[in-house]
Amino acid sequence: MSDLLERLRERGWRLTAQRRVVAEVLDGDHVHLTADEVHARAIERLPEISRATVYNTLGEMVTIGEVIEVATDGRAKRYDPNAHRPHQHLVCSRCGTVRDVHPRGDMLTALPADERFGFTVATAEVTYRGLCPDCS
């Protein structure tokens, strides 16, 4: 069973056939699919699944914190099932490929006190951008 399916089951989230297929499609490392890509892959497993069901299921997974919605420069949102492992993203500026990365050090301490403007900083999100090997 996939990590995402296991987490959803532990939450007591009702796993209909449609929800199960969406979770299975999202399973794996470095998975950052758009809703349309999830739908296309889900249809291969469950031909009757609708686009609306996929969008609704992804929205619910984001709302309950089991999937992260990743927005990159006006491109379609992508969905990352790696919601419980701290990481940042590396994005190709040309094709939009997204990879999970795990930089060393604490991102919170990287922001100097004089740049916090009195904020109590709780989290940090950093996106690294460049060209992937295929686009270089």
The general outline is globular
Q: Which percent range fits the helix content?
A: 25-40%
Low-pLDDT segments: none
Distance between the termini: 37 Å
Strand tally: 6
Strand order of the largest sheet: 1-3-2
Radius of gyration: 17 Å
> How do the SSEs run, as a string of H and E?
HHEHHEEEEE
Architecture overview:
With 136 residues, the chain is an alpha+beta fold. Helix content is 32%, strand content 15%. It has four helices and six strands, in the order ααβααβββββ. It has helices at residues 3-11, 17-26, 35-45, 51-63, and strands at 33-34, 68-70, 78-80, 88-92, 98-101, 127-130. The strands form two sheets. A three-stranded antiparallel sheet has the order 1-3-2. A three-stranded mixed sheet has the order 5-4-6, with no helix packed on it. A hairpin with a 7-residue loop joins strand 2 (68-70) and strand 3 (78-80). Helix 2 packs across helix 3 (35-45) and helix 3 (35-45) crosses helix 4 (51-63). It starts with a helix and ends in a 6-residue tail after the last strand. The model has no long low-confidence stretch (mean pLDDT 90).
Quick structural gist:
The chain has helices at 3-11, 17-26, 35-45, 51-63, and strands spanning 33-34, 68-70, 78-80, 88-92, 98-101, 127-130. It has 136 residues and is α+β, with helices and mostly antiparallel strands.
How is this fold's topology laid out?
Elements: H1 3-11, H2 17-26, E1 33-34, H3 35-45, H4 51-63, E2 68-70, E3 78-80, E4 88-92, E5 98-101, E6 127-130
Parallel strand pairs: 4-6
Antiparallel strand pairs: 1-3, 2-3, 4-5
Helix pairs in contact: 2-3, 3-4
